[in-house]
Design goal:
Layout lengths: L2 E4 L5 E4 L11 E8 L15 E3 L20 H13 L2 E7 L4 H29 L3
Antiparallel strand pairs: 1-2, 2-4, 3-5
Length: about 130
């Protein structure tokens, strides 16, 4: 979970970042917010944020309250509260170390299909009587 946004009706929206820490070249397949009961939190698309049902009128996620310290600390306090409540981001990804093995597997698959289709075409053409 990366950034906090305010929704249209005052609800809290969490913008998710699909980049994998420590592996900037990773290929993210899916990203979702998982709630305390290990179920996916329904919401908007990941680029718009996911709505999280957290009270925003009082407590650490009250965006009107001014926390002590730098202004960017208020978002960190709220993200800490979301962690405490059991919300987390679940990202499925392929690490960048698998890039070339996947490319070679795909190349081999297409080469095998091409050779198979070529063989079938040659067999059909040779079998046909003119």
């Amino acid at each position: 979970m990366d950034q906090l946004l305010r929704g249209r009706e005052g609800e809290l929206a969490v913008a998710v970042d699909t980049r994998v820490p420590g592996d900037p070249g990773a290929w993210a397949l899916s990203s979702r917010i998982v709630g305390p009961s290990s179920t996916t939190v329904p919401g908007l698309a990941s680029e718009d944020g996911t709505l999280v049902p957290v009270p925003t009128t009082a407590g650490p996620c009250d965006l009107r309250a001014q926390p002590e310290g730098p202004p960017e600390r208020s978002g960190d306090i709220c993200l800490d509260e979301l962690n405490r409540l059991g919300y987390r981001q679940d990202v499925a990804y392929h690490p960048s170390s698998r890039f070339w093995p996947l490319q070679w597997f795909e190349t081999g698959l297409y080469a095998a299909l091409t050779l198979g289709l070529m063989g079938l075409c040659l067999w059909l053409v040779r079998r046909r009587q003119f």
